[in-house]
Hints:
Blueprint: H1 17-48, H2 63-81, H3 87-106
Amino acid sequence: MPSNVDLLPSDTTGVSHLEAAEASLNLLRGQLQDATRRSAVLKEELAAAEPMMVSEFDAGGPAGNAQLAEAEQHLRELQLKYTEQHPDVIAAKQRLEALKAAGTAVSSPGKGRGGWRATARCPTRSTSS
Length: 129
């Protein structure tokens, strides 16, 4: 078989395999550019948007709050990429729950820095001792 077979036109369409591959590559490049632009627009919108949910930890708490915030952010990023059943999402949720549990063991709800806050936006947390 000749080494330039990809340059020959196809029997059915008259387009060479090389031309078809180049067209496919150009289409994929365009889709990548569109996705990159969409991603940039969404990041700008997210940065400009006001938070819709109040964090359950006080902002001025101990170093555990930084870990909790980082774990929450990591989970959100994974949820954008994967389904809820993905092992990484499940592991991130478990880590987040462990950090939350460790925070409640250190400080009782509603007392002191780093404790849980009761807010109107977080109805799932109770403030009872």
